[in-house]
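pinned: reference chain
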Amino acid sequence: VQMVTSGGALVQTGGTLRLSCAAYGFTSSTSPMGWARQVPGKGLEWVSAIYPDGSTYYSHSVKGRFTISRDNAKNTVYLQMNSLKPEDTAVYYCNAWKYWGQGTQVTVSS
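pinned: its structure tokens
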């Protein structure tokens, strides 16, 4: 099983990014999928999740700015990130069941 993550980059405050995570060798349609992030020296923070029925979860820190979506036909989960802030700087990891992506760096400059 591979979870291939892409989309991280360096952006300015107020910018946008879209993260993608494609699952290979694993049918994700019946599994919750989500995103977590980690800053060096800090624990993993769960950012957002989307469930098989389409319901979603967002952490307080990103609610209203980030949107999670999934394409079950492509086994892919997305995270649209708008109005980015320096405090969003982190390595972002995607997750589906027990599988994790390799992480992608998001850096927001002030």
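why pinned: The chain is about 0% helix and 55% strand. The chain has a mean pLDDT of 95.
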